[in-house]
Every structure is written in structure tokens, then in C-alpha cells.
Design a protein that fits this description.
TIM Barrel, alpha/beta, elongated, six-stranded parallel β-sheet, seven-stranded antiparallel β-sheet, about 450 residues
């Protein structure tokens, strides 16, 4: 697997192709704009961390229907030959405005807007939602864990229970964007140059005659990077064995890096382990903890006084267990120079090409977001959506992963603490600009005029 795993245009829902064939038959070649945003029906996330854009841009740049793709579509017997001939020459020629990866954004704000000939814009819907939705979901979960850890290092341990090989790679990248310090995923480390971290499994300990022997062997193999797993049999006895080997290492001029807890009452056990280590003069040895951690468990053990220096965060983060999907959608907002608004109950969209403007206070603290029209300028604010593709080509090379990571760090630091806390809802202020409000009223009224010639009052709850 390379840095970018190209999927190809058949990575799509079947109806994208049937719609495209319908558009082709009707000669519907005008430009359309689609907006990508996250509806917040579940109310489990009050902010999001943008991630996945790099994959989207790579896919659009390289998307081609191969000869085997065309032959496969022919087997369905549904698609006219002229349409298949059109697909042989398919290239993306549109433009994209997007919020940069690592940026904090909020429900109903456009994460990406794509403008292209209708067929092109339609065909990429599935991939864009898949790439942005999953990686944003994981980066957001990871950010919540980072906040709960309050400065303690976090390591991605999610690979073995990630839902697929590609998911495991994306989890490692997304968590790194959000501030995790390392990953256990060796392939992701190679692809993205993410630091690697890992210790040992219980099987390593049980493969030896006793715990002391296992720790001694490991220490001689990794004299500068040893972390012992101390809960295979009994945590307290495991700690004493770690102390014995740690003192042996010290006498040789080496130093034990840490011990790891993987079960039990982490708050109580970590305090007892800390006392044993300190009493032995091994106050420099760190205590790591793993097993079922996410933002909720991290916050709980810290609140109960745990003496844990770093956490391995795996399954619950890697599948975003408390909110395992985002209601991310891809909606047409403009076509044939006309703004379009969906009015379905509970699923009303914002018509027109848009921009998100962020107002900040002293020191860069985020005060308010204003969703406005693409063309307007709101004094004292910063537009978040940046043009990244024009005429099918990247405007500039994408930022490196360290730059994206730093963008998140600055964004998160600028967000007030009250908006980050899990479980305590303080909604970040978001409003529509006067100009965008007027556009929505005009667009909502248009269907009523077409039906009966009368103006219909519209309520946007």
C-alpha cells in the first residue's frame, strides 16, 4: 500500500452511474455545485476536525475509467454505448473549495464545495463522503481523547480491531493529525513517517518460565527502549519484578523506560505501582496504560487520581465507538446558474455557493463563525474554505502531515475550553450572514411560486 491507495471511479454507488447516464442522455452538461456538510442529528459531536482531503484530491486528479472498467459496465446491459464512450475520456475539470485538514469546524458548515459539469460532480459523491466522513470522524474522536488526556501523550493502538486494513491506515494518519504522538501501526509509520511505539504482549511473558526471566530477556534485547507489561499474573508482583530488572539495567548504565498496565482498576493500581517504583529509586520510570481507553475512560481515571503518564488508545477510538458514523451529506446547492435548496423536513439545506468566516478575538480565540455567500467579505473575519483545485488541477501542492498537525494544534488551542468538554454541551455560536439568509428566503419561496403563483412563508427551524 502506498501513501495514496487509488480506488478508481468504480468506487461509487451504482445510482451515481445511472444518474450520470440519465444526465448524458438529456445533454445536461452545465456546471453544478455540491456542498458537503455534517448534519448533527445525534448531537454527540459539537465540533469536528477536518481530515481526508488529501485522499479526495489524489482521487480526483487520477480518476480514469480503464478498459476493464468499461467492459464490466457493459456486462450490466444498462448503459448506452455512447455513454460508455464518454466515460473512456472522463477527466475531472472542475474546482474545489475546502476547509484545510486539521481545521476545527462545526455542524452544518460546508467542509467542501465542488463545482464541475454535472456528471463529474455527481460521480465523485460516494468517494468524497467516504474519505472525508471516516477520517473526520476518527480525527474528531482522537481530538476528544487528546483534550481528556490534558497533556499526557497518546498512542494509536487501534490497528488490530480497525474495521479493515485501509481503515487501520487512515486511523493512524487521522489520530496523528489530532495530536497523537505515535502509532503501533508499522505500515502507517512507513507511509506517513509517524513515530512507532509498542511494548510486548502477554504471550511474550508467558513464553518464558517466569516474569523476571521475560523482563530480563527483553531488557537485553532493547536496553534503551524497554517497557514491561506487568499485569500478566499479578500487578504488584509484576511491578516488583520490573524493579528488579530495572535496577539490573541501571547497574549496566541502561534505564528502564516504563511499565504498562492493561487491566484492572487503573486509578488504584497506577498509584500503587508509582509508590513501588519511587521507593526503589526508579522515579524516572513512566507508567503507561492501555485497554478500552477513550476520552471518557481517560477523563475518569485522571479525575480519580491515576498516576498514568501516557495512554495507548485503541478499539473505542479506532471505531469511534460512541458515535460510529457521521451524518455527512453531499447536496446540490446550485445548477444552471440557479441556487437550489432542499426543503425536506429535518433535512433543509443551504442554497448557493458558500464561505465560512471565522471571527477571532485577542490572541486568536475563536468567537463566532458566520456562514455566508462565496462572494461576500465579512470584515474582521478569516475565510475557512480555500480554493484547492481549479480547472481540474491542484492550485498548489498539499501541506505535509506535520504542517496539518500544527494547523490542528493552533485551531484547537484557539477554541475555548467550554466547547471541548465531553458531555457538557456549550454550542459554539454560528449564524448566517444577512446576505445568505436573504438568498435562502428567495430560494425557498421559488417552489411555492411555481406551484400556485403565491408567495409561501418559510420557517427554518
Amino acid at each position: 500500500m502506498t501513501k495514496h491507495h487509488y480506488m478508481g471511479p468504480l468506487f461509487t454507488d451504482f445510482y451515481e452511474l445511472t444518474m450520470a447516464a440519465g444526465y448524458f442522455k438529456q445533454h445536461m452538461v452545465e456546471k453544478a455545485t455540491f456542498s458537503v456538510f455534517i448534519r448533527n442529528h445525534t448531537a454527540k459531536r459539537d465540533y469536528f476536525v477536518a481530515a481526508g482531503l488529501e485522499d479526495v484530491l489524489h482521487e480526483l486528479k487520477n480518476s480514469r475509467f480503464s478498459e476493464s472498467d468499461i467492459r464490466y459496465l457493459q456486462t450490466s446491459g444498462l448503459f448506452p454505448e455512447k455513454f460508455l464512450e464518454y466515460l473512456k475520456k472522463f477527466r475531472f475539470s472542475g474546482e474545489i473549495f475546502a476547509i484545510p485538514e486539521g481545521t476545527i469546524f462545526f455542524p452544518d458548515e460546508p467542509l467542501l464545495e465542488i463545482t464541475a459539469p454535472l456528471i463529474q460532480a455527481q460521480l465523485f459523491e460516494t468517494f468524497i463522503l467516504n474519505a472525508l466522513g471516516f477520517q473526520t470522524m476518527i480525527a474528531t474522536k482522537a481530538a476528544r481523547c487528546i483534550h481528556a488526556a490534558d497533556g499526557r501523550p497518546l498512542i494509536d493502538f487501534a490497528l488490530r480491531r480497525a474495521q479493515g486494513t485501509d481503515a487501520g491506515i487512515k486511523v493512524a494518519r487521522s489520530t496523528y493529525i489530532a495530536g497523537f504522538q505515535a502509532t503501533s501501526n508499522v505500515l502507517a509509520g512507513k507511509i506517513f513517517d509517524i513515530p512507532l511505539s509498542g511494548t510486548m504482549a502477554h504471550s511474550y511473558v508467558t513464553a518464558f518460565d517466569n516474569e523476571h526471566q521475560a523482563f530480563s530477556a527483553y531488557a537485553r534485547t532493547f536496553p534503551k527502549n524497554s517497557v514491561f507489561l506487568i499485569d500478566t499474573y499479578d500487578v504488584i508482583e509484576g511491578t516488583r519484578n520490573a524493579v528488579r530488572v530495572g535496577l539490573e539495567m541501571q547497574s549496566r548504565g541502561d534505564f528502564l523506560v516504563g511499565v504498562r498496565l492493561d487491566s484492572g482498576d487503573m486509578a488504584d493500581l497506577s498509584c500503587r505501582v508509582r509508590r513501588i517504583l519511587d521507593d526503589a529509586g526508579l522515579d524516572y520510570v513512566k507508567i503507561f496504560a492501555s485497554s478500552g481507553f477513550d476520552e471518557f475512560k481517560i477523563a475518569d481515571v485522571i479525575q480519580r487520581g491515576a498516576k498514568i503518564d501516557a495512554f495507548g488508545v485503541g478499539t473505542k477510538m479506532g471505531v469511534s465507538a460512541d458515535a460510529p458514523y457521521l451524518d455527512i451529506v453531499y447536496k446540490m446547492v446550485r445548477f444552471r446558474d440557479k441556487n437550489i435548496r432542499k426543503l425536506s423536513p429535518g433535512k433543509v439545506t443551504l442554497a448557493g455557493r458558500k464561505q465560512v468566516f471565522r471571527r477571532t478575538g485577542p490572541g486568536g480565540c475563536c468567537l463566532e463563525d458566520v456562514i455566508g455567500t462565496r462572494e461576500e467579505h465579512i470584515p474582521g473575519s478569516t475565510p475557512l474554505l480555500k480554493k484547492v483545485v481549479e480547472n481540474g488541477r491542484l492550485v498548489r501542492p498539499g501541506p505535509s502531515l506535520p504542517v496539518i498537525r500544527e494547523n490542528f494544534r493552533r485551531n484547537f488551542a484557539d477554541l475555548d475550553e467550554k466547547y471541548k468538554a465531553s458531555g457538557l454541551r456549550a454550542l459554539f455560536p454560528i449564524r448566517l450572514s444577512t446576505r445568505l439568509k436573504a438568498l435562502q428566503d428567495q430560494t425557498a419561496a421559488a417552489p411555492a411560486r411555481r406551484r400556485d403563483g403565491k408567495q409561501e412563508k418559510y420557517h427554518n427551524g
